[in-house]
Amino acid sequence: MEPEQCHACHQPIGRPRKISNGLYLSIIVGNSIDLKMTTADRFLFKRDYEKFKLRVTLLNMVLLIVNLVFPSRPLDLLCHFLMVWYYCTLTIRESILRLNGSQMHWWWVAHHYFATAICAVAVTWQDDEDYRAFRLQFLLFALYICICQQLQYKYQSGCLRRLHSLGHGDSMDLTLEGFDMWMFRGLTFLLPILVFAYLGEIYNAYTLYSMWTRGTTSWHVPTLGVLFFIVGNGNLFMVVKIAIQKLGGDPRIRKQSLQTKFREYNGIDKLK
Questions:
Q1: Residue 243 pLDDT greater than 60, yes or no
Q2: Distance, CA of 173 to CA of 157 (rounded, Å)
């Protein structure tokens, strides 16, 4: 039996290798292409992922400021659609990174799926009385999130570079829209900024719940309220859990850890 040939290049098609890209990536790109990369390719892909986050959030921040100064329904839709595309793209890129060894916690990945849903609901929300009542709060919150993401990228990327220079951390560690164990090595000042953002998510949920209980609303109001409630509480739970894990345990181990970090910081200062 002759092997099957490609109709375009007239070359025999080899026996397909068994490839598993995971459920999500298999749905999007299939299992015909192996998305596992070499070490060099992983580094380049990770670097492009970080640049993508920085540039898109900066663009959205500019659009949000313009939209707050010059209110416009088309600009509202543009901002919402941009964030739907942004978070959808992040979920795909993060799935590829996790396939290639990234240890990004599952919650911060799930957080982006919820964020995609929030922005998608916002895109479909018609310009009714409820939307106009919530619009300013939502746009200000989105702007604050963009500012948080810029700060996180700036300081987390610098911290990761210094840790890698000292031989600590994983080469596939990523900047996050949250808080992780390695950030206790000098980034605890970001914690209040993030907690305020997470409390803002819960406050958004409370505002939407109040709107829903006052009278007849569209389905967008309770749906967004539930999504914000899940995301806000999930983010707060993760931060508290990480803080307890890091600060808990045997005091002697904590003392030894602090001494180790002191020596590391001396090394970091010398690298600067």
A1: yes
A2: 10
